[in-house]
Amino acid sequence: MTMEQVMAKKRSLESDSRRQILDVALKLFARKGYAAATVREIVDASGITAPSLYYYFGNKEGLYMELMQTHCARIDQVLESHMHTSSSAKEKVKDLVDKIFLHVANDRDFFRLMFTIYYGPSQGAPYCDFISYHAKFHAAIKKIIEEGISSGEFQTGNPGHMTLVIRGVVQLAMEEQIKEDRKIMDRQVLQRVLDLILELFKQPPDDSKEGR
Amino acid sequence: MTMEQVMAKKRSLESDSRRQILDVALKLFARKGYAAATVREIVDASGITAPSLYYYFGNKEGLYMELMQTHCARIDQVLESHMHTSSSAKEKVKDLVDKIFLHVANDRDFFRLMFTIYYGPSQGAPYCDFISYHAKFHAAIKKIIEEGISSGEFQTGNPGHMTLVIRGVVQLAMEEQIKEDRKIMDRQVLQRVLDLILELFKQPPDDSKEGR
DNA sequence: GTCTATAGCTTGATAGAC
DNA sequence: GTCTATCAAGCTATAGAC
């Protein structure tokens, strides 16, 4: 057995409990909130005991922080790995939104927790800079729209307001995705609504109102 | 002193502590969440002691439920007392949204709590049927839009999708109103964005795509 | 109606054996 | 690394005097 195999085994053994705790904790934090998800529940559902949790993560906050860091990093990946297709502005918006929507759907528990902490009371959870992701997303959409206006694809207008229209439906779709209720806005419907909005942005301004 | 004066005095004395508790509790529930806002904090901030709270409301749940009932009734009032102006569909949408926006801004603490409970974990709070207000609002907007399409004010389209566009920006505006952060969408901006959307709904469909 | 005092439970966290 | 056993602090709620 080589040195690396030894370390790999050790890491995999160590990781077994660790991963288990992380998975269970995310699910419980998302379902019950940071404060209401107790350490006891987490360790019981993980099949370990409390001291193990404290061994790995120091305390409840440490466990929470590690979850935040890991999953926030994934958001950055999604936000940064887009827009290398040189298609129309409309397609760029639809593509970016679709990627984010899929990511939210795939990491639903984390986003449920994120929304809870961001829009609700902090519940004693340590601070996490969620607002920057809101801003990044807003800026990304706005940039595409401004480029679309410059290129003549969209009619002239207030890019900030146009961005808000896009963000609004995306926000609705995300929130529905996060709730367990029956959804009226799945991936396809969201794309259709984006089609509606972006086609309206394309239509030329009413000539009767322009003085030329 | 008449009988009525006696009762009025009794009620006003009784109401003093009662009202105080209700006001303080709403604020604390909104800021810290149902679970994290403790009975101790509420009674301390109210200037009374725990047994008084239990005397009036039975328990923490009873206090919470009374807050919900009172403020939910006010939402119904707003949703039902509109649309008696026979103006354009555009003005009807703007008017309804404005009324709701103002109501949210005026009863901010309650809506903060409502959003927290609705989108986040229940935190052990007793169930309250918030989803019906979502549905009522959705239906009200959709109805106006359908009427606008019938009357020819709006171009033909999917009323459900058009409603989602409206609801999206309203949702964004409400959520910004509820957060303490710097807002980019106040009452005026919301009305401007609605102008943008509703004007786009008005524009005639592109003839080049119709086969006539 | 309002208080003092306290019961009874759950919580996050740890000491110390293995 | 993982356990058993346990602690101190916080919580909701109540008994009983006034």
Give the topology.
Two copies of one chain form a homodimer.
Chain A: H1 3-32, H2 39-46, H3 50-57, H4 60-80, H5 89-106, H6 108-119, H7 131-150, H8 159-178, H9 187-202
Helix pairs in contact in A: 1-2, 1-6, 3-4, 5-7, 5-8, 5-9, 7-8, 8-9
Chain A binds a DNA duplex (18 and 18 nucleotides) through helix 1 and helix 3.
Into how many domains do the coordinates of chain A divide? 1
For the terminal residues of chain A, how far apart are their CA atoms? 83 Å
Major sheet of chain A: none
Could you give me the name of the CATH homologous superfamily of chain A?
A: Tetracycline Repressor, domain 2
Residue ranges of chain A: pLDDT <50 for 5 or more in a row?
Answer: none
Radius of gyration of chain A: 22 Å
Tally of DSSP helical segments of chain A: 9
What coarse outline of chain A follows from CA principal-axis ratios? Answer: elongated
CATH architecture of chain A: Orthogonal Bundle
SSE string of chain A: HHHHHHHHH
Quaternary organisation of the protein chains? homodimer
CATH domain class name of chain A: Mainly Alpha
Approximately how much beta-strand content do the residues of chain A carry?
under 5%
Mean pLDDT of chain A: 90
**Class based on secondary structure composition and strand pairing of chain A:** mainly alpha
What is the fold-level CATH name, i.e. the topology of chain A?
Tetracycline Repressor, domain 2
Count the E strands of chain A. Answer: 0
Most extensive contact: A-B, 43 and 43 residues
Helical percentage of chain A? over 70%
